[in-house]
Amino acid sequence: MLLCDCFNEFAKGQEIDSSFLKDEKSRFHLNVTAELLMCDAKSLEDADSADALAKTVYYRLFDWIVEKINRSKQFEQFCINFTNEKLQQHFNQHVFKMEQEEYTKEEIDWSCIEFVDNQDVLDLTEKKPGGIIALLDEAWQALSFSAFSSRIVEVIQILFNWVPFKLQSLMETLSTTEPHYIRCVKPNNVLKPAIFENLNVIQQLRCGMMLEAIRISCAGYPTRRTFYEFLLRFGLLAPEVLEGNYDDKVAC
C-alpha cells in the first residue's frame, strides 16, 4: 500500500493543506498512517494537515533513499557534479551571455567570443520527462511504502534528521544577487605544497572557461562605475577638468 494512497482517502478542508475524515474508510487509513508514524491517531487527526504531512514524508523519504543509494552507487558524486554544472551555467549566463548583451547595448567595438554552453548536460540531468532526476523520481513513486514498514522507528528518525539538498534554493538566491566568482584551482595532483603543475592548471582554466572570461573582460570596460563616481575617484589626475563646466560624461 502506498502512503499517498492513505492520504488520498481524506477530504479537502477549507484551509490550505487541511483535510478531514470523510467516512470510515478514511478513519481506517488514519489509523494505519498513525501506526506507521508511531503517533497517536487522535493527535494526527487534530493536526489537520494531511497534504503537508504527505509532502514532508515523501521529501524526507526521498533523501533517505538517496543516502542508501549513495552507499553503493556514489549518488552523492552525481549530485556534486550536477551542482557544479548548475553553477557553471550561472557563470556562463552572467559572464558571457549578459556581458556580451551589455557590450552590444553600450555599442562597444568588440568581437563576439564563443563559449561552450552546458545546457545539454543539464537537460540530460534534470529536464522532464526524460532527465535522470525525473526518471529517479518516477521510479521512487512506484516503490511500495510497505517495504519500509518493518523498519519505520529507524526510518522516521533518519528522515527527520537529514539536511535536505538546497540546490534550488541556492540558485534562486544567486539569481537575485550581483555575483562575484572565485575560482579554486588545484595546483598539483599529489596534494603537496610548493608544486605548480603548469599543464594541469591551464587545463582547469580552460575547462572552467576562464580564458574566455578574461578575453571578454578585456573587450569591455575594466570597471562598472557611473560617470560621477569615476570623476570623484580619478578627477585628481586632471583637476582642470573638474573646474570646467563639463557635464559628467564629457568630463570623463
TrEMBL record:
Entry's Gene Ontology BP terms: actin filament organization
Keywords: Actin-binding, ATP-binding, Motor protein, Myosin, Nucleotide-binding
GO cellular component, one term: myosin complex
UniProt GO molecular function: actin filament binding; ATP binding; microfilament motor activity
Residue ranges constituting the Myosin motor domain according to the UniProt record: 1-139, 167-252
Highest taxon above the source species: Eukaryota
Region (Actin-binding): 167-189
Pfam families, per the entry: Myosin_head (PF00063)
Stored PROSITE patterns: MYOSIN_MOTOR (PS51456)
Homology family: Belongs to the TRAFAC class myosin-kinesin ATPase superfamily. Myosin family.
Identification of the protein by name: Myosin motor domain-containing protein
Species this protein is from: Heracleum sosnowskyi
